[in-house]
What we know:
Blueprint: H1 3-12, E1 20-22, E2 32-44, E3 54-64, H2 71-85, E4 90-93, E5 96-105, E6 110-113, E7 122-131
Amino acid sequence: MITPVEIKTILDTLGTLGLLTVGNMPASPDVIGTIYEYGGQSIERQFGQSGIRYERPALQIVFRGAPEDYIGPRNKAEIAWRYLASINPGPLSVGITTEYLMVTPQQSPFPMAPPDNNKRHMIGFNMYISKGLSV
């Protein structure tokens, strides 16, 4: 699995974040969360061995609410932010055997942009991840 799908899988187990998508936030439904990839940090190699020891991808998670609802997406972003920041080193479980070392949010949840034309707020955060290669 790729990193955003692994993170989606673990967030889905919370059961409180609603619909989550990867890579694309459709125009509907109003209430949705999306995980995006963006440029991460450089890889880590093992001294004396070829190949990648750890990769460090970067993700952004954005939650959109119903028209004029700021609190709903803000609360969901806070739940995801706290949960991901608390990941302990090791496999994520729920069938994901990739070794995760840490998830480091780069800031607390914040408005990603002004409300859209439908008055929907979007709240999110960015994070760096240190992990083994996905299998």
